[in-house]
Amino acid sequence: MIKALIILLIIAAGLILGPMWTSGQGLLILITPSYTVEMSLFVAIGIVLVLLLLLWLLEAILRFVSKGKRGSVGWFRGRKRRKAQQRFNQALHAWLVKNYEEAAVLAEKAAPGLAQPEDAYLLAASAWQALHNHGEQKRLLQLAKKTEGDGLAVKLALLENCKDASEAMTRGKALLEQEPKNPAVLRTVAESWYQHGHLQTLRSLLPDLEARQAVTRARLAELFRACYRAYFTTAGADSERLKSMWAELAKKQRRSTPIRLAYLDVLMRAGHGAAAAKVAARGIHHEVLTASDLLTYSATDWREVTPLRAETEKQIKAHPDHPNWLLLLAILAIQESDYALAERAAQRAISLKPERLAYRLLADALSASGQKESALTAYRQAAMMK
User: Fold this and answer.
1) In whole angstroms, how far apart are CA 293 and each of 341, 343, 347?
2) How many folded domains does the chain comprise?
3) For labeling, which of 181, 273, 353, 368 is most exposed (least CB within 10 Å)?
């Protein structure tokens, strides 16, 4: 087009300059069957140039319209996408301020106009999940799957919301084959298997969860305890088998707080209070267990507590102002019918930190020693504590 304009300009310049050089008039006569048009050559050239300019403008407009993104079609598409992104941002804001219904509606409306619509569908599904509307949640998860069925985010969401135990196992294994080192995959699979009770399978995943720091330390401890509790439970009522399973563990595992607590859980549930007391005593000696860990067990389940009491007394000497060790001593003293010691330990714990358990233990000790009125007062104080 530019070359054609240059050629036409050269021709026009020749037509203009030719008559000027020859001092001619420069007339142009157009003869048709009905009319004869006579005009100055300069006017004719001007008309030609205007027509050329109009043709060039028409061509530019047609090219602009036909170029998609740079034309009108692309502009409308861009406008639609910008509006969808704006809605998605509004949905995120609504989610952050816990306006879940508005977040779900805005995200679903925004999805068709986004480059990655599955993100909006997943956000809407999460919002409906927060509102416990599982029907809408399931519908939006299916939309996300249709949009991007192979996407990792969609697969994680489908596993997280899977209600069938066998399907959860299958989906989890497939994800681990695809992304074995991805912390998000490890975390989602672990939580799904935990929810569906696949604790024996989950136990093999624990080292990776720990190595990749896929969950918090507190949650990791809960998973370790649950998995090893399930592991020890397979021994059933066979105390020798249970003891053998504990002995077969590596030293590092036996020194793990959640694993030792899992072993204690099973021992106490099976009625092996004497063995539990020995395991707890060794745990305290190796600084694996604390008084707080042991106070969660029922006081009446401990048996033959002499070694455990000895370790507890050592801890009291090392930490005289720690009320939990005093509370544990009070529990063990009641088990050994040493009610005077239990009363002193509970009173000392109350002086350090008044709480319901301390008053209840004091009441138990007073009641066992025959001090009914004092015991009743202590029970009332325990009931008043939060």
Assistant:
1) 22, 22, 21
2) 2
3) 181
Residue 50 lies in a domain: yes
The answer to whether 260 and 292 are in contact (CB under 8 A) is: no
SS3 31: strand
Per-residue pLDDT of the chain (386 residues; tens, 9 = 90+): 565 666 666 666 565 555 554 555 566 676 777 777 676 666 666 677 777 778 878 877 777 666 654 555 565 667 788 888 888 888 888 888 889 888 888 888 888 888 888 888 888 888 888 888 888 888 888 888 777 656 788 888 888 888 899 999 999 999 999 999 999 999 999 999 999 999 999 999 999 999 999 999 999 999 999 999 999 999 887 889 999 999 999 999 999 999 999 999 999 999 899 999 999 999 999 999 999 999 989 888 888 889 999 999 999 999 999 999 999 999 999 989 999 999 999 999 999 999 999 999 999 999 999 999 999 999 999 998 87
**Is residue 83 assigned to a domain?**
no
Q: Which of 366, 278, 379 is nearest to 330 (CA)?
A: 366
For residues 314 and 327, give the distance between their C-alpha atoms in angstroms, rounded to a whole number: 14
Backbone angles phi, psi at 223, to 5 degrees: -65, -40
Domain end point (choices 14, 47, 66):
66
What domain range is 53 assigned to? 2-66
Does residue 381 fall inside a structural domain? yes
Does the pTM exceed 0.85? no
* Neighbour count for residue 51 (Cβ, 10 Å): 10
> Is 258 within the bounds of a domain?
no
What CATH number is associated with residue 338? 1.25.40.10
